[in-house]
Amino acid sequence: MGEHKSLLEVIIKEMRSAAEEEAQKILKEAEAEAQKILEDARAKAESLRKEKLNQLVFEYRQKLLSEIAPMRLELKRKYIQEKYRLVENQVDELIMEVVNEITGSSDTRKAFLVKVLSDAVASMASSDLVINPCYGSKDIIPDVLEEVKQKLLSLKPNLRIEVSTPIECREGAVITSSDGREIYNATLEAKIKEVRESVLPKIMEQLSKK
Asked: Can you supply a Gene Ontology BP term from the record (predicted)?
């Protein structure tokens, strides 16, 4: 009877030991699984946090760009406008320097008038013309026309120019064919406008490439 009891105790002890080992194994596996779940959860949470942060940064950047864009366009518009104004002022200053040189003496005035009136008369088909001089040029127009006629003698041997009423302008004249079909504005004001309209766009085009 004592031997049976001892054997039973051994069996119970072994069973208890096996149960404890199995329990320890299950516990370790459970702990490992729990740790893995926790790490996965942390990794997922970190990934979501980064994704959320990136999304917030993107949205803020887009919002900032949308707010800045009109300001940048306005600054660019003002810059171009100011640049054009400065260039325009410089061109006007240069033109006025030339104008002052032209009108600074009787010789330069006369040379200018002979040039512009010769070009005007030569470009017109008619040889029978009426000229309305500017008030600033009326005193020297007769002498100028004599030179113009001599200069264009071979081109227009039958040239006839009638001097009519002076008009409000600084230098030059407006020339009209006697039949009224042709008209040529050879005033200093017209030449200034022509130069401005020709030069300014070219300068601005060059500046826009820089």
From this structure: proton motive force-driven plasma membrane ATP synthesis
If asked whether residues 61 and 150 sit together in one domain, one would say: no
Contacts (Cβ under 8 Å, ≥6 apart) of 146: none
Phi-psi region of 169 (alpha: psi -120 to 50; beta: other; left: phi over 0): beta
Distance (Å, whole) CA 178 – CA 160: 10
Task: Identify whether 173 is part of a domain.
Answer: yes
Token look-up 């030059």 returns 172
Which of 103, 122, 157 is a domain's end point?
Answer: 103
Shared domain for 99 and 110, answered yes or no, is no
Domain count, the chain: 2
Per-residue model confidence (pLDDT) at position 80: 80
Per-residue pLDDT tens over the stretch 84-114 = 888 888 888 888 888 888 888 888 889 999 9
Cα angle value 128/134/137 (rounded, 5°): 95
What pairs with residue 132 in β-bridges? 174
The domain in which residue 29 lies consists of 1-103
When the pLDDT of each residue in the chain is averaged and rounded to a whole number, the result is 84
d(CA 63, CA 100): 56
H runs (alpha helix) in 104-165: 106-123, 141-151
User: What is the reported pTM?
Assistant: 0.60
Structure tokens at 45: 């949470």
Strand order across the beta sheet in which 183-185 lies: 160-163, 128-133, 173-177, 183-185
**37 pLDDT exceeds 60?**
yes
